[in-house]
């Protein structure tokens, strides 16, 4: 006798299999998939006789790695938690790329500073994070002491589904362990010689928080290359340029165009040279991507994906 179709959500991905939690019963079952099936944690699926059919996505978050590979890291999200720490430091531009990717995908970026108990934390906030505190929701937490975790869990209690992304070693799994001690995710110490973290999360997993909301823990990565994002989107969504308002030309790239509000504010010091230099670096990358022959085709495919 054939089983009736059942709908659920992918809560873990093991490469050649996924774990599905069924909406009707809450039960979980592991279902085999092809290694490059395209399913990701957060996908809504329908299962008929152990065959998965992915339902339309409301949102998805993708990134490009240092070798040019494209990875979809989560689906049907509304929040991107960018987890950073003063040790190890995020690579240059990591936060900005993640914020742009979130905004283009329709997600709310949420900056989470972990390890506030470390002596370097206060200086790192003052020198690097003040600009973001004025632009988006931020949380300062310590997975070690528990500081700030009530505020973070309270935010997700409003019904959000988010994903933790950040460089290896910043403590994403440690925060989740503090919020949900029963899941006991593996963590590792920072290498004191290189001040870098080691990969501890190897499988993306979705967890339901006790008081409401959901969080996806993903493997750490030190690169956040932008995928399918246009120059116009970068110019519109780059953090720190919001105060500029509208430029004279709608397609202004914020270089030397007449009537550019960004360069005007740069000249008066209201936008810092550091912010602008970071923008130009990323702009050059996006322009190079747009010049590739298959750029339009890839953007079209991404728009059609549901």
Secondary-structure blueprint:
Elements: E1 6-13, E2 17-22, E3 28-32, E4 44-48, E5 51-54, E6 60-64, E7 70-75, E8 79-84, H1 94-105, E9 108-113, H2 121-133, E10 137-140, H3 149-156, E11 161-165, H4 172-179, E12 205-208, E13 214-217, H5 231-237, H6 261-268, H7 273-290, H8 295-304
Parallel strand pairs: 8-9, 8-11, 9-10, 11-13
Antiparallel strand pairs: 1-2, 1-4, 2-3, 4-5, 6-7, 12-13
Outline the structure in words.
This protein has 306 residues and is of the alpha/beta class. Helices cover 27% and strands 22% of the residues. It contains 8 helices and 13 strands. The protein has a 6-stranded mixed beta sheet with strand order 10-9-8-11-13-12, sandwiched between helices. Strands 3-2-1-4-5 form a 5-stranded antiparallel beta sheet, with no helix packed on it. Strands 6-7 form a two-stranded antiparallel sheet. Strand 9 (108-113), helix 2 and strand 10 (137-140) form a beta-alpha-beta unit.
CA distance, first residue to last residue? 32 Å
Task: Compute the number of strand runs.
Answer: 13
Model regions low in confidence, pLDDT < 50 over at least 5 residues = 185-201
Can you list the strand order of the major beta sheet? 10-9-8-11-13-12
Give the structure's gist in a few sentences:
The chain is α/β, with parallel strands linked by helices. The protein has eight helices and 13 strands.
Features of the shown structure:
306 residues; 27% helix; alpha/beta; 13 strands
């Amino acid at each position: 006798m054939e089983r009736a179709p059942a709908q659920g959500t992918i809560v873990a991905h093991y490469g050649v299999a996924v774990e599905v939690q069924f909406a009707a019963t809450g039960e979980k079952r592991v279902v085999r998939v092809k290694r490059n099936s395209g399913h990701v944690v957060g996908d809504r699926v329908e299962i008929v006789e152990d065959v998965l059919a992915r339902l339309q996505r409301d949102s998805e978050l993708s990134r490009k790695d240092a070798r040019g590979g494209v990875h979809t890291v989560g689906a049907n999200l509304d929040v991107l938690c960018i987890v950073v720490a003063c040790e190890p430091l995020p690579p240059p531009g990591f936060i900005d790329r993640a914020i742009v990717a979130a905004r283009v995908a329709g997600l709310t970026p949420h900056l989470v500073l972990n390890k506030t108990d470390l002596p370097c934390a206060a200086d790192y906030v003052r020198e690097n994070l003040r600009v973001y505190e004025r632009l988006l929701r931020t949380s300062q937490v310590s997975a070690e002491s528990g500081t700030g975790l009530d505020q973070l869990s309270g935010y997700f209690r409003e019904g959000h589904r988010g994903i933790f992304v950040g460089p290896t070693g910043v403590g994403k799994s440690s925060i989740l362990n503090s919020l949900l001690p029963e899941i006991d995710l593996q963590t590792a110490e920072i290498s004191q010689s290189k001040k870098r973290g080691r990969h501890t999360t190897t499988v993306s997993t979705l967890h339901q928080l006790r008081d409401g909301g959901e969080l996806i823990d993903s493997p750490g990565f030190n690169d956040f290359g932008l995928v399918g994002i246009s120059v116009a989107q970068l110019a519109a969504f780059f953090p720190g340029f919001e105060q500029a308002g509208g430029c004279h030309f709608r397609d202004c790239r914020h270089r030397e165009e007449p009537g550019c509000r960004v360069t005007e504010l740069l000249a008066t010091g209201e936008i810092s040279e550091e912010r602008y230099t970071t923008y130009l670096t990323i702009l050059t990358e996006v322009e190079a991507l747009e010049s590739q022959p298959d750029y339009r085709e890839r953007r079209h495919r991404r728009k059609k994906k549901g």
